[in-house]
Every structure is written in structure tokens, then in C-alpha cells.
Write a structure and sequence with these properties.
Length: 151
């Protein structure tokens, strides 16, 4: 994942794409911050690719919230800048699962771990995050899991 980001940054610099350069630098800074936070004697390599995907997903969610606030405040140019950054960040994420696929996977995980009630919601979500980080909208997945576990 880091190699892909580095190559993309170099390509953006060659193309003089200032928006892409600044967005990739923001991504790298977020990864470096997380690397520093998890650094220990046992972990000298930093965060894994799965954690990088999680960082990217959080960055998208932050920008969506910011864009919404900018739109409500009438600052459309700033909202557009947030949407442009989202498009760039999304290029580094795997294809997102649609609602139907997400619901099927949630039901499969519930069956696999033998979840029977809302008390098992944490187990379901942890399993989903381990297997589908960066590929799934966990807000939707949580709703599907809650519905399935309350029936």
C-alpha cells in the first residue's frame, strides 16, 4: 500500500497535479501519525495495509462530514474541494461492496460465529472489520447486523 502511495505521489508531482499531491501528502501524514502511535519494541514496521485502509476510510468519512457542513453553510467551493479529495482517496481503496453484498456478508458472518442476540453485535462487527476493512460501509453493516440479530 505504501509503495502504491509513493508511486502515485511521484506521478502526481510529474503531472504537477497540486490537488492530488496535497491529498496524498495528507494520507502519508495520517499513516505516519499512526505509525508513531503504534511504534514499540515489538512493532518496528508500523501499521499494516489493513490499518492503512481503515485510515483511508476514516479520511473519507471526515471529508463527507466537512463537505456536508460546508454545503449547509453555503461554502460550495470548499465542499467541492472536499469531494475532490474524496475522489482521490477512493482511488486507493478496493471496490466498495454494495448494500446487497454487505447484507449477505453480514448474514453469513452471523451464521459463521453463531451470533444469536444483540449481545453478539460486537463480535459480528469485529469479524467484519477484520475481513472487510476498507471494502464495506460499516454503518450500513451495523444496521443490517442489528436488524438480523433482533429478529
Amino acid at each position: 500500500m505504501r509503495d502504491i502511495l509513493d508511486k502515485s505521489l511521484k506521478d502526481a508531482m510529474r503531472a504537477r497535479d497540486s490537488q492530488k499531491i496535497s491529498t496524498i501528502r495528507l494520507i502519508n501524514a495520517a499513516i505516519k501519525d499512526r505509525d508513531i502511535a503504534v511504534r514499540s519494541e515489538d512493532n518496528l514496521e508500523g501499521v499494516s495495509d489493513e490499518e492503512i485502509l481503515s485510515i483511508l476510510s476514516k479520511m473519507i468519512k471526515q471529508r463527507q462530514e466537512s463537505a456536508k457542513q460546508y454545503e449547509e453553510g453555503g461554502r460550495l467551493e470548499l465542499a467541492q474541494q472536499e469531494f475532490d479529495e474524496i475522489k482521490i482517496i477512493e482511488t486507493f481503496l478496493p471496490k466498495q461492496l454494495n448494500s446487497e453484498e454487505t447484507e449477505q456478508i453480514v448474514r453469513k458472518i452471523i451464521f459463521e460465529i453463531n451470533a444469536t442476540s444483540l449481545r453478539d453485535m460486537g463480535k459480528v462487527m469485529n469479524t467484519l472489520k477484520k475481513k472487510y476493512s476498507g471494502k464495506m460501509d460499516f454503518g450500513k453493516a451495523g444496521t443490517f447486523a442489528k436488524d438480523a440479530l433482533t429478529k
